[in-house]
């Protein structure tokens, strides 16, 4: 039985798009996805995305809409909210942000005034663009002050310097979270510093939301964080989307709701809310906990190979699903060269700046990779260790076509031996 996504109407009506969909399906089937922010969605989640909820306008919130015909959207959004709150152990959830950036921007505008100071992690030390990078619009409204790691080789945040900066700058919001940082954070320290200066605390958990929901790593709410923002499509394994969670303050939750609509967005994408509800239902199942544990074990297996072979890992290793390797410093291969050669052998990942980057952000020293997607495919520690060995071999032999051909064949065999499971969206 073919398990490919059925697209008979696209095939009949628009062969050009159908061909591209089939091409992407094949790419995903034949190669290994190591971009740590990517994953596969289930067929059930995909059905919800393709459902009739995409036809509906629903500005507002359950019970308080601007248009009629909300009998099903109200129940759907409330179900999604209830599941989100159960997953993350909090009282309030806004499930409407279209993705992670609007979730962060909506949260800032919801709780702050123009000119307020936000303390966030520096992009080059693992933070995110929306945490105050000068290229983003939010820096026109808020005063971002950024903190760094004390030592990039241990990953420890300089909490004493963070406290001193907080006492001096008097932020209204202390932000933690990251898109390229592999260690656990000391959430208690953030909360203590924020209390001292009267700031809100917000954790952008986009990368690790699945791991938190699956109980594999710490939940910032357990330490008293006020707000968590996240995407829903990374380790959480849902559809593309964003979400803002509030631990227990009704006042904060109301401000956030008002900020997302009408402050920032128009009509919510109810088909995406439906898909989030389905994915959260999946994450509430016991097997999701096993999946998260395996993500961590697989990342540790890759860490061991890289460290054993003398490749420097930022943070000295990983406590989560991702690794950031200084391949230029250790192997003399730039991040762009590494991304290219690994793409050639069927491994997709991204070049990434490292802390205190000596090169440029367009061809930096590092690569970032992680295990959520290959763990969905059933990769174990032994498989991941082999992938890590092949990655290093490919980078060391970036100009040797025979070696690359051999590695490409082995990667393809591994991919075919671990097909994307039938319950997920995939090629036949
Ligand atoms: N693009 C996401 C990532 O890859 O981490 C963050 O926005």
Describe this structure in words.
By secondary structure, the chain is an alpha/beta fold. It folds into 2 domains: 48-283, Type I PLP-dependent aspartate aminotransferase-like (Major domain) (Aspartate Aminotransferase, domain 2, 3-Layer(aba) Sandwich), CATH 3.40.640; 291-417, Aspartate Aminotransferase, domain 1. It is 46% helix and 14% strand. It is built from 17 helices and 16 strands. The chain has a 7-stranded mixed beta sheet with strand order 4-12-11-10-9-5-6, with helices on both faces. Helix 7 packs parallel to helix 8 and helix 16 runs antiparallel to helix 17 (401-417). The longest helix has 23 residues, at 286-308. The termini are close together. 50% of the residues are buried. The mean pLDDT is 96. Bound molecules: D-serine. D-serine (DSN) is lined by residues 37, 100, 128, 179.
Brief overview:
This protein has 428 residues and is an alpha/beta fold. The chain has helices at 8-13, 15-30, 43-49, 71-88, 100-111, 138-141, 159-169, 187-197, 209-213, 250-264, 270-283, 286-308, 327-331, 335-344, 372-376, 381-396, 401-417, and strands spanning 32-33, 60-61, 64-65, 92-94, 117-121, 143-147, 149-151, 156-157, 173-177, 200-204, 227-231, 242-246, 322-326, 347-348, 350-352, 366-370. The longest helix is centred in the last third of the chain and has 23 residues, at 286-308.
Assess the beta-strand content as a share of residues: 5-15%
List all distinct small molecules, including ions and cofactors, that are bound in this structure: D-serine
Number of helices: 17
Number of domains as seen in the coordinates? 2
Mean pLDDT, to the nearest integer, reads 96
Q: Spans of 5+ residues with little confidence (pLDDT < 50)?
A: none
**CATH C-level class of the largest domain:** Alpha Beta
Question: Taking Cα atoms only, what radius of gyration do you get, to the nearest Å?
Answer: 22 Å
How do the strands line up in the largest sheet? 4-12-11-10-9-5-6
């Amino acid at each position: 039985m073919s398990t490919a996504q059925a697209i008979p109407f696209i095939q009949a009506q628009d062969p050009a798009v159908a061909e591209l969909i089939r091409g992407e399906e094949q790419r995903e089937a034949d190669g290994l996805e190591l971009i740590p922010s990517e994953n596969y969605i289930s067929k059930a989640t995909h059905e919800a995305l393709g459902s009739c909820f995409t036809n509906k306008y629903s500005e507002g919130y359950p019970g308080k809409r601007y248009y009629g015909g909300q009998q099903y959207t109200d129940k759907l959004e409330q179900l999604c909210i209830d599941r989100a709150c159960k997953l993350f152990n909090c009282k309030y959830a806004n499930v409407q942000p279209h993705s992670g950036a609007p979730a962060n921007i909506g949260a800032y505008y919801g709780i702050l005034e123009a000119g307020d100071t936000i303390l966030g992690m520096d992009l080059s030390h693992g933070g995110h663009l929306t945490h105050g990078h000068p290229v983003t619009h939010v820096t026109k409204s808020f005063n971002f002050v950024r903190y760094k790691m004390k030592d990039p080789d241990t990953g420890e945040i300089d909490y004493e310097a963070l406290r001193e900066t907080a006492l001096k700058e008097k932020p209204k919001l202390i932000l933690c979270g990251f898109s390229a940082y592999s260690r656990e954070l000391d959430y208690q320290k953030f909360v203590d510093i924020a209390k001292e200066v009267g700031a809100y605390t917000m954790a952008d958990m986009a990368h690790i939301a699945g791991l938190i929901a699956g109980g594999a790593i710490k939940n910032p709410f357990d330490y008293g964080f006020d707000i968590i923002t996240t995407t829903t499509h990374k380790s959480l394994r849902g559809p593309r989307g964003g979400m803002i969670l509030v631990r227990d303050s009704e006042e904060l939750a109301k401000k956030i709701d008002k900020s997302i609509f009408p402050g920032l967005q128009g009509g919510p994408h109810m088909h995406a809310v439906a898909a989030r509800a389905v994915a959260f239902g999946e994450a509430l199942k016991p097997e999701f906990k096993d999946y998260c544990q395996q993500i961590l074990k697989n990342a540790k297996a890759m860490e061991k190979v890289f460290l054993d072979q003398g490749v420097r890992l930022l943070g000295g290793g990983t406590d989560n699903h991702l690794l950031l390797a200084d391949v230029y410093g250790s192997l003399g291969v730039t991040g762009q060269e590494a991304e290219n050669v690994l793409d050639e052998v069927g491994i997709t990942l991204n070049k990434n700046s490292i802390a205190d980057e000596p090169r440029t952000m367009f061809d930096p020293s590092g690569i970032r990779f992680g295990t959520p997607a290959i763990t969905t495919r059933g990769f174990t520690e032994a498989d991941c260790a082999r992938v890590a060995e092949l990655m290093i071999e490919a980078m060391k032999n970036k100009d040797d076509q025979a070696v690359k051909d051999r590695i490409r064949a082995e990667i393809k065999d591994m991919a075919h031996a671990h097909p994307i499971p039938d319950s997920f969206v995939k090629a036949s």
